[in-house]
């Protein structure tokens, strides 16, 4: 099975750049930009996680259905989308989340 990683990623990269540009030009509020991408990350998680859970149950009980390869395909495709949108999420919340990656400077008491 061949996975289309670039073809799947391009609409999301374009969509993010589009909504981010609208936000930077003050055509939409930052809250709307964030809500759009939080919704997309939630939907991607639900579909990818749900497909993964179904695949797990099918494997555990030895169920082989004709839909299993398509389910695996969409599980992987939406997992890639989820990873990409997570990068967008870090970009949006960088100021508040950078302390996860770089510890805050210690204050010197005088």
TrEMBL record:
The keyword Transmembrane helix applies. The chain crosses the membrane at residues 6-23, 35-59, 71-90. It comes from the Archaea. Keywords: Membrane, Transmembrane, Transmembrane helix. This is DUF4405 domain-containing protein. It comes from Methanobacterium subterraneum.
